[in-house]
Amino acid sequence: MAxxxxxAPLGLRRWLSSAAPAPRVCVVxxxxxxxxTAQHILKHHGGALVDIYEKLPVPFGLVRFxxxxxxxxxxxxxxxxxxxxxxxxxxYYGNVTVGRDVTVPELQQAYHAVVxxxxxxxxxxxxxxxxNLPGVYSARAFVGWYNGLPENQDLKPDLSCETALILGxxxxxxxxxxxxxxxxxxxxxxxxxxxxxxALACSKVKRVWLVGRRGPLQVAFTIKELRxxxxxxxxxxxxxxxxxxxxxxxVKDFSLFLDxxxxxxxxxxxxxxxxxxxxxxMRAAAxxxxxxxxxxxxxxxxxxxxxPSADGRRARGIRMALTxxxxxxxxxxxxxxxxxxxxxxxxxxxxxxxxxxxxxPAVPFDSQRGVIPNSSGRVEGVPGLYCxxxxxxxxxxxxxxxMNDSFDTAQSVLExxxxxxxxxxxxxxxxxxxxxxLHSRGVRPVSFSDWEKxxxxxxxxxxxxxxxxxxxxxxxxxxxxxxx
Length: 484
Known about the structure:
alpha/beta
């Protein structure tokens, strides 16, 4: 990547050898996309000043609110982001909603470049009857609930049923299944919220089905998450051997897998092995007299309707169309066969993807694809405006994908600074201008050192409970801690 490997950083010589003001860059969103974009610009341009805006008082986006509580190692990137935020050329302004408290055109007046990295704040809808019944939740809301996302703190999911059904075969679906079935002593040591832990302690859920429209060769989860689920104490996997008929010989004959990457082959082998294994009776014995909890994968089923209870007040099950596959690999399409199946369940979680929303009328937005139209992060038709992360490419991939994508956008900003596409001759006030706008609208921004006070309070509360932290879920309480 240009600017790496010992070459002089892009734009640095130009900045040092001229009297031009320092380029001021604004990043909207403090999740991985925002922080990686800021990090790359700061690293490869010795003069740039970067301000990061976030609507919540607290930073880190989906690293804080999306990563499962029992996956603390994934949250280690927060240490890198903290280093970036503490840079003397970087500033963090939380508690500022762009599009409401300050508009994108106002940011463009204050900065030489504006990068939109605000992620996907909504969920894709199923578009079927009954999806708004009590007992039906989006994965985003459910994950937000146990991870302390303020907007989901009052979700109070009903866990009084024995069977839950999750629509989707991705890592988020497996995360939710694992949280629903995990022994409490495992969760108590994590940063899961206290109220979620209390609800899970009373949960009656002991069976979770994960349902997908396509087959075993199209699942989107990865082997690490599947292995974790298979090895979850006190639970057993229920996979139908019939779903894997013929796949065993296909896996053995590696020539049939030439178009499949090695991780897909290993993942399929693990599913086959789990499906064909004889149930381990010892596991049931180890779980005590009660029947062990169980989970399973159901394939080639597409949701048609969430079925209401007799009084119509909540979900009692789901009707699914059975499908057949046309084509192969990732491009295989699920076609309804005409047959249907009903499954009883009192909890339905839709894990079919997140969706970005338009932020400001001044920003082009493709509502079909849920992204900002762009070329290498340059927003089409709006010079000086950029995007990175999920709002740039859609809600797919893991943190490393977002890192590479954000570096790509940051590189576009650096190239435009170097090539004179961004005119940095007029001095821009940056936060100086934005601060007066926010002040006039009664908005009090939160600094990174303010966040560190909230962080310290969470860690202290967690220590008392034997946890890494106890997240504060009420923004008013966060502001109270820092005296705002």
